[in-house]
């Protein structure tokens, strides 16, 4: 099982915290003296140094001023801190800018990526979603996070637009899903039928490998995991209930790659995968 997906974010935050502690100690200041110089309670200094609270850009500038650190140190630490916080993005905070903006925020990453690996135990991955299915998924996301559904139509189109990258030359896409994904009713019957039919077509694309892990698998070598995507062996995004986590630490990326390979090895492909999809289509109209 991979390490906690938030550990990369915490490790980055700890790196900033350790550097700030070093600056305080080099300046010969106690935690209380540093707090007094910055104008806050000493407990805040302790929380920052222990990585429990991420410092704001203003906090870092005050800290560096109190320890006589250079402006360059402040700039570097601010950049590192912002990067650490960006690794852990709460869904609600992301979606305040609108569902469409969330879809468009990863367009550059999609276009830069040559090899996609995606695993999902819950829904059809966005790269393979049809319009009706995407509308259902984004509608649920809007309701779950208690957000207005004002731009769902625009968000759906943005998702479809970014997904066209899988047809671009030089792309390779490996998708592994649990069979239960085929049965989860994320949209009405017509939309589900269209989505399942689209999966039949997607599995035949030269650049796409679609694997399905049957519910009847007798002996699993990896339990169902949270939805995750690996981009070019360099970056992983993990979907949690409350947030999306970005993992860039090489050792953790490697763990996700190994998990993906174990999940992939349990999946069926080709005619066996098509049989599972056809059964799911038939189940829509018992």
UniProtKB/TrEMBL annotation:
It comes from the Bacteria. SUPFAM superfamilies: lambda repressor-like DNA-binding domains. CDD domains: HTH_XRE. It holds the Pfam family DUF5753. The chain crosses the membrane at residues 192-213. Keywords: Membrane, Transmembrane, Transmembrane helix. Residues 20-60 form the HTH cro/C1-type domain. Gene3D superfamilies: lambda repressor-like DNA-binding domains. PROSITE patterns: HTH_CROC1. This is Helix-turn-helix transcriptional regulator. It comes from Actinacidiphila epipremni.
